[in-house]
Amino acid sequence: MPVAATVERDAELMLRVRDGCQESFGLLLDKHRGPVIHFLYRMVQNQAVAEELAQEVFLRVYRSRSTYEPTAKFTTWLFRIATHLALNWIRDGKREKGQESLDEGPTEGLVRQVPDTAPNVEHVLLTEVKREEIRRAIRALPEKQRAAVLMHKYHEMEYAQIAKVLGCSESAVKSLLFRAYESLRSRLAHFAR
Amino acid sequence: MKCPVESKENVDLLLDFCLGKPGAAAAKLARHVEACPACQEFCASCSALWSDLDLLEAPPVSPDFNRRLYERIEAEESGVWRKFLSLFRLRWMRPATAVAAAGMLVVFGVLLQSPFVPENLPRPLMEAKSDIDIEQIEETLEDLEMLRTLPVVISTESPASL
User: Fold this and answer.
1) For chain B (length 162 residues), average pLDDT per consecutive 10?
2) Distance (Å, whole) CA B45 – CA A155
3) Contacts with B61 from chain A: Cβ below 8 Å
């Protein structure tokens, strides 16, 4: 489906939600739930927290339905709320308050994702170690750089859209991304050797 | 063209090029990268990083995510009225109570100053007296005096003398 048509469809659905259509909210939820939770998961690196924050994102969307105007892409608005909540959560330091962190090891979901047909245990362990290092490297990025990389890499957003989500200029986003990738490259350089 | 890695200019274009995102300057960059070891190294490590980042998968979403969200929405919606009423109580009822009390005091004060008299009640006594002729009072008083002295007259005169 073309991007413009998708955007129009999302905005149209949201306008229907504004008019009281619950089914349209359900459609928006089903469509964007996955990307929002995955983005939040990569931001906060905790599945339970990611889902809790995602609930808050959709709750805020629902609360704002009566005043919604399709002035921007629906996904821009959605990710803006999600980023705002994630950055606040990170800044509040809630991850240090007894939350189950990915530092403590792979989650149940991640374990399930290891294929049964893995050639050997060593390969699985190496992959897990590599994955953990990537998590650490992403976690070490400054918050805005982290958000920019995740939107750029995993959600294939354009610079202009990332700029709108983060509330900065397009050139600032390019600079953020370059610095972030440079940092990741240097942290994960040993993988290439 | 200037080397993006060395000059730090157009690095976004180089980044897009390395990540396989076609751009306007792709052809120009391709020619430069072919001849530039620094950019080749940059592109190789970017491509490797890009595929490494694919390892960071997100776990599946909880099956009860929607149910929990709808429960929260429902709870919030049912709580909206409670919140509205509590807001009303807090923000409107307190001043309204004070205003009502003050109003009652004012009305009470006004009533004290000018008491209300219903039309069907009997006229006040003084108002009725004002219609009585002063001569009638004098005559009544004389009659009473005469009445008081009357037995004396009767007692001093015997029936036989009448």
Assistant:
1) 80 82 76 89 87 89 95 85 60 67 85 65 52 63 57 47 42
2) 21
3) 33-34, 37, 51
Exposure string (b/e) for A59-71, b if CB count within 10 Å is 16 or more?
eebbeebeeeeee
A113 contacts in chain B (CB < 8 Å): 57, 59
> Which chain B positions have a beta carbon within 8 Å of A29's beta carbon?
66, 69
The answer, for B50 touching chain A at a CB cutoff of 8 Å, is yes
Its sign, for the CA torsion B2, B3, B6, B11, is: positive
What does the pLDDT look like over A90-146, one tens digit per residue?
A: 988 755 654 445 544 444 444 445 555 556 888 888 888 999 999 999 999 999 999
The per-residue pLDDT for A93 is 79
Helix pair angle (A170-187, B11-18), 10° resolution: 60
